[in-house]
Amino acid sequence: MRADARAAQASQHPGVSLCYPDPARAVGGARLGRQAAADIGIAAVRERFGLPEEFLYELCQDVNTIRYRQSIVADLLASDELCAVLREVRPMLRELAYFRTTRKEQSAPLQQAVWRLGELETYVACLQRLADAAALPDLKSDGMQALLAFVRTRREDPVYQRLVKELPALRGGLKRRASVSIGINLDDQLRPAEATLLAVHDEKFAERPLLSRIFGAGTPYQPVASIKRVAAMGSLLGDLDRILGAVARPLAKALGQYVRLQVQDLLSLEREIAFYLGAAQLFAALRARGLPVCQPRLAGAGDRHLQVSGLYNVNLALGASEEAARAIVGNDLDMAASGRILVLTGPNQGGKTTFTRAVGLLQVLAQAGLYAPAAAAAVSPADVVDTHFPVDEPGHAEGGRLAEEARRLASIFASSSEHSLILMNESLASTSPSESLYLAEDVVRGLRLLGARAVFATHLHELGERVDAINGEVAGASRLVSMVAGIETGASDNGSNGEVRRTYRIRPGPPVGLSYARDIARRYGISFDDIRAQLAAKQDSAPQN
Q1: pTM
Q2: Which tens digit of pLDDT belongs to each residue from 144-166?
Q3: Which of 203, 219, 392, 516 fits a disulfide with 215 by CB distance 3.0 to 4.6 angstroms?
Q4: Burial, 498: exposed, middle or buried (Cβ in 10 Å; 0-12, 13-18, 19+)?
């Protein structure tokens, strides 16, 4: 087909997309890097639920596209029947792709015709089920309405309607060619000498082989299963080719009138349906654990908002039992003008890393057009989501790991803007505390100057104590705020600070590093009281002279 004819055909039969409002302008944003995907844990979610990378890792910044997807997710979550129909359609679309990609591999004319017939049969069945899906009651999304209009246009095409009527006859013509009879002449020693094609039958050959009937079923003679060397075998095969060619010609001619019925603009739906079905599975799994999911409210990119209530980490929830998942602590987050850069401190295993990852997971899911793991959320699209997490890199010479960390940090600043989200977890921890604090302070100063949204999770409590001073020293559109990974400190009988309990709540507040140190000392028995009691017990148990 000529290029201008193909263009005319495409204009007459525009495709449809469930991920883009206008398939002709389906231009994605920047992609989430593989390291960032692994750091925040979205790679594990993608693998578990079979979510295609092209939609999940695309940092879509077009609000209309994100809303288009959100409304389709809402339809799926409200309709188990829609999910069931789409699960039926997916293998049909894969089969269509198989027919299309392998048709040219069929060399014989009859095989090519049969392949095309199978493709058209699958196409008809697929359109029927897509029509069933899009016509389900109470579907509200523009995407499902666009699918319904697309399918209706295809099925109203007179050529398509003629195909539907003629498919039974086309299939029947093939089925009537079920078997052939071959005559074999034997020589004077009963060896095959010649073979010829006698007849073509409409039914499968089911009679007992000739030699079995002559000699009886219990004889040592076996039916002739194959003939390896027969005189004039080429003539026999030529006869077969002519017979099968005669079958192929009318079938190919009949199928020729449907040449403009193309299937390629349906094929992209398979990946899109996989995306939505995987998302529906994800949210069903979270809801089954008693956890909320919400449709995020979209703020403008220029607002640089990330406001969330009841945020939790998806992977933590999925890895827990249903009972344990219900006890997961949700946290609130407000990255607005009053504090877009969170300097997060807290005890080891207090939830800093889990929270930092949860922020990234929510941002990526929201920009993909999916629901958010939270009770409520308002999200501005980010142009970049980048991470700086510890990476095990053995074999570096002394100072090599710090140099690598510095290079990665420099690349983040080079690729980010005020619309970016940057997540840092225990960055610059590979050097001495004094050097680490000096470098970390410069990094958060740079984040303030850049104006991005960021989480800087760190063991450097002194950095959290410096946020007000840094806000006063450096001009910028993003203020720093100190956040604390939750602890509760009880009071002991003597009035001193008691044991520190991790609550996993992340709240604004100044660092309380001394409490963490006391908790560690108490946990490992190296507080002064513990050491004094140990020495006293040792002295009491010593033998007396």
Answers
A1: 0.80
A2: 999 999 999 999 999 889 888 98
A3: 219
A4: middle
- 538 vs 401, which has greater pLDDT? 401
Task: Identify whether the C-beta of residue 305 lies closer than 8 Å to the C-beta of residue 378.
Answer: yes
Q: Element (H or E) spanning 511, and its range? A: none
Residue 336 has what pLDDT?
84
User: Which residues in 80-121 belong to E strands, given as ranges?
Assistant: none
Structure tokens at 65: 């596209």
Question: What single string gives the DSSP state of each residue in 142-182?
Answer: HHHHHHHHHHHHHHH-HHHHHHHHHHHHHHHHHHT--EEEE
Question: Is beta strand 421-425 parallel, antiparallel or unpaired with respect to 453-457?
Answer: parallel
- Candidates 88, 80, 162, 77; CA nearest to 131 is 88
Nearest to 447 by CA among 344, 528, 519, 341: 341
As a whole number of angstroms, the distance between CA 216 and CA 202 comes to: 28
Using CA atoms, how far apart are residues 52 and 59, in angstroms rounded to an integer?
Answer: 13
Residue type, position 421, single letter: L
Distances in Å between the Cα of 348 and the Cα atoms of 426, 431, 460 are: 11, 18, 12
Separation CA 28–CA 32 (nearest Å): 12
With beta carbons less than 8 A apart as the criterion, state whether 387 and 40 touch.
yes
Q: Please list the residues that pair with 231 across neighbouring strands.
A: 194
Sequence-distant (≥ 6) Cβ neighbours of residue 516 within 8 angstroms: 346, 347, 461, 487, 500
Residue 436 tokens read as 């680490």
Residue keyed to tokens 């009886």: 216
Which has the closest alpha carbon to 199: 177, 178, 180?
A: 180
Length of the chain: 545
Task: Give the C-alpha separation, 306 to 300, whole Å.
Answer: 11
3-class state of residue 532 by DSSP: helix
